[in-house]
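User: Predict Acyl-ACP desaturase's structure from this.
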Amino acid sequence: MPLPLQTKLMLDLEPVVEKELDRHLSMAKEWFPHQYVPWGQGRDFDGPLGGEGWTPEDSKLAVEARESLIVNLLTEDNLPGYHRAIAEVFGRDGAWGTWVNRWTAEENRHGIVIRDYLTVTRAVDPIALERARMHHMEEGFEAAHGTEFLHGAAYVSFQELATRVAHRNTGRASGDPICEQMLARVAADENLHMIFYRNLMAAAMEIAPNETARAITEVVKAFQMPGHGIDGFLRKSVIIANAGIYDLRLHHDDVLIPVLRKWGLFDRTDLTGDGDKARDELAEYLEHLDTQARKFEERRDARRARQAARRSG
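Assistant:
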């Protein structure tokens, strides 16, 4: 009896996982969250220690950077759910399990450093942040693709790059060199994660091109950032997009297209049947997304022009 495709792929790709894990460990740089936090700016809060309660005037960050940092942190907070979801897809044995645990440890470090930075610099209301964390984690996380291996690997290939872009642009938007340095360090980790998953998918494409192309298409068409369940996410994402931290243009040009180009999806000659159909669907969707991105940019530019005219008038 032939093995199910997912089981066969997992077995065939284990040597690739071992190779990519070794590459990752050779390139990943050890770093320590406490070294990126300006502890000297900290002071006691109200409560048992009798310090000063938070006020909006405490924050030196623009609202766009503040909202983006909150989304980024609350996303990291749901790490237990992500660990479970990825472990269900990749398993806990051998090189697969070693990678999942390493990935989880590195992602957890991101949540530690961002929370410490926000708390010490009083950049956000710590009570509201903690309540948002509790609410978000109580909601839990379920991957839209379930335990399908190809869908899961395709999703994180794009998602890790999207996160890298969001972190880097948030740092630049913060106006704080300390914040920018911290998020650049976090983004470097995310880039290595993206390379791992991207290379894994490239190997899967060689083994099962049609099935892999279908999974990629379905993931791209249904893509949502993992923090989409955050309370008020739509409002926050609009603020983030209007600031140019992460928007449709960046998603199309800086996330989807580079990864798809690396896989050579539109140049392959081995796609047949449903795989070829999936590629056509993907091309059509990307064209639609490009049109939507252009319309968003036009509306944003017009809105900014009106705001500038009011200020000068």
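The domain at 15-312 is CATH 1.10.620.20 (Ribonucleotide Reductase, subunit A).
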